[in-house]
User: Which sequence fits this backbone?
């Protein structure tokens, strides 16, 4: 009987050890995944910047009176390349998205630009990248959410506290993005 | 006679003890897989990144298959044929044939489609056919056309069509060089010497042949028959070199996690119980031998 109990204790000890190893490895992987998911957004943001350079070049010839808007977007692009932290990049990215929206809205007043093939291609490409960025932000938030829940759940909480793991911030929409859209209808009188 | 039974019980106890340990560790491996499934968020197909990904979508065939036993249209099937073997001591099913298809298919969600290569996949699919005939058991599991599926696998880059064409051209030219009958045909001016111009023409001819053969494949992709986004044209989801997890199931993520919970429970606790019971029997026989 003694040997059977000893073997049972060995099973329990190995089992508890393996269980905590799986929790530890799981948390490490989650943190790495969050970083990877952010890097994947960064890759797309860089791709968008390349497209923006081309877009500005195409627009310059037509939008002579929108120099300020074009200069703003070029400036933001340079700022993004200098930005170091995720928060800074997130802020500039939102500003670029806003500036792009302005460019596309203003382009409506330039029929020649609107019908330019290069402009149409770039507009499509940028909106394609924007959609992918939105998907990857969602994925990033999902992995952050899973991580934040895990580190507050028992038994993961025990390992997370031992490693001093803290909540990670979510990628949130800015107050400007949350604002109601101001739509004014101008009906013909 | 009694000694014979004792020996058999003793041998089976040793096997059972080690099988219990195996189940115990397998349970923890399953636990790791379950946590992985829970920890990976689901990607939308148009924005999948390289590496381990989880997607949900419907299965669309590239080549429509027919299940050998169900006769149903499917994108993937797994068949198992076993023969009933009776001996004096036992009766058991012995595997005669097992086949899993490795023909790639597409998985499509509302954002796009991606190729899935099912080679070496671990599946969790419902048994769609079972029949016992002439001492043989025939079983089939499959993924039906248009069925919603869950995929956890590694997204990796395939060779582009240009690279494939280039390789094919090189391979065919090598074949010509190695075959004297083919090589002689390149000598257009019959001077028994293949000059630079003749080589150039031969290469152009091979290129043209290969281009025509690849045209069909390329146009299918370019026409967007499967709504594959540009960034996913050369991407395939399959078994990774670093991360070996590759699972396809027709269950939802939640159902899959639930099924893993039961498997883990029975594997770990069943393994412990099996080992301990077998150990107890072993000790009993060891004690008997010592007393003798």
Assistant:
């Amino acid at each position: 009987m003694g040997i059977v109990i000893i073997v049972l204790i060995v099973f329990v000890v190995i089992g508890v050890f393996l269980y905590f190893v799986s929790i530890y490895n799981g948390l490490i992987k989650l943190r790495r995944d969050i970083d990877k998911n952010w890097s994947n957004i960064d890759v797309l943001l860089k791709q968008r910047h390349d497209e923006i350079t081309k877009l500005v070049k195409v627009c310059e010839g037509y939008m002579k009176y929108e120099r300020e808007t074009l200069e703003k977007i070029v400036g933001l692009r340079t700022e993004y390349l200098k930005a170091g932290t995720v928060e800074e990049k997130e802020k500039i990215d939102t500003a670029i998205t806003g500036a792009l929206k302005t460019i596309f809205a203003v382009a409506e007043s330039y029929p020649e630009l609107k019908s330019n093939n290069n402009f149409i291609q770039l507009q499509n490409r940028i909106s394609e990248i924007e959609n992918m960025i939105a998907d990857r932000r969602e994925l990033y938030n999902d992995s952050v959410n899973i991580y934040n829940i895990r580190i507050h759940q028992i038994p993961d909480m025990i390992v997370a506290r031992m490693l001093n793991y803290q909540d990670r911030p979510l990628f949130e929409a800015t107050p400007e993005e949350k604002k109601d859209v101001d739509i004014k209808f101008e009906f013909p009188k | 006679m009694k000694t014979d039974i004792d020996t058999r019980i003793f041998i089976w106890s040793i096997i059972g003890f080690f099988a219990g340990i195996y189940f115990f560790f397998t349970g923890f491996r399953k636990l790791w897989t379950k946590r992985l499934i829970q920890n990976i968020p689901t990607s939308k197909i148009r924005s999948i990144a390289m590496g381990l990904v989880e997607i949900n979508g419907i299965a669309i065939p590239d080549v429509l298959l027919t299940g050998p036993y169900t006769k149903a249209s499917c994108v993937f099937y797994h068949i198992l044929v076993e023969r009933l073997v009776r001996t004096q001591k036992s009766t058991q099913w012995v595997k005669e044939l097992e086949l899993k298809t490795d023909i790639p298919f597409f998985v499509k969600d509302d954002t796009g489609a991606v190729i899935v290569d099912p080679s070496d996949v671990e599946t969790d699919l419902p048994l769609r056919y079972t029949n016992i005939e002439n001492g043989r058991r025939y079983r089939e599991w499959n993924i039906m056309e248009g069925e919603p599926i869950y995929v956890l696998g590694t997204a990796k880059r395939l060779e582009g069509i240009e690279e494939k064409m280039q390789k094919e051209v090189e391979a065919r030219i090598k074949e010509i060089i190695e075959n004297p009958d083919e090589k002689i045909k390149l000598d257009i001016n019959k001077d028994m010497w293949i000059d630079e111009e003749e080589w150039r023409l031969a290469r152009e001819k091979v290129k043209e042949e290969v281009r025509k053969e690849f045209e069909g494949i390329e146009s299918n992709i370019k026409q967007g028959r499967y709504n594959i986004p540009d960034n996913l044209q050369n991407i395939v989801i399959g078994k990774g070199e670093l991360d070996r997890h590759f699972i396809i199931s027709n269950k939802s993520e939640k159902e899959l996690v639930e099924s893993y919970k039961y498997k883990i429970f029975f594997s770990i606790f069943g393994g412990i119980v099996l080992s301990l019971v077998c150990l107890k029997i072993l000790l009993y026989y060891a004690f008997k031998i010592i007393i003798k």
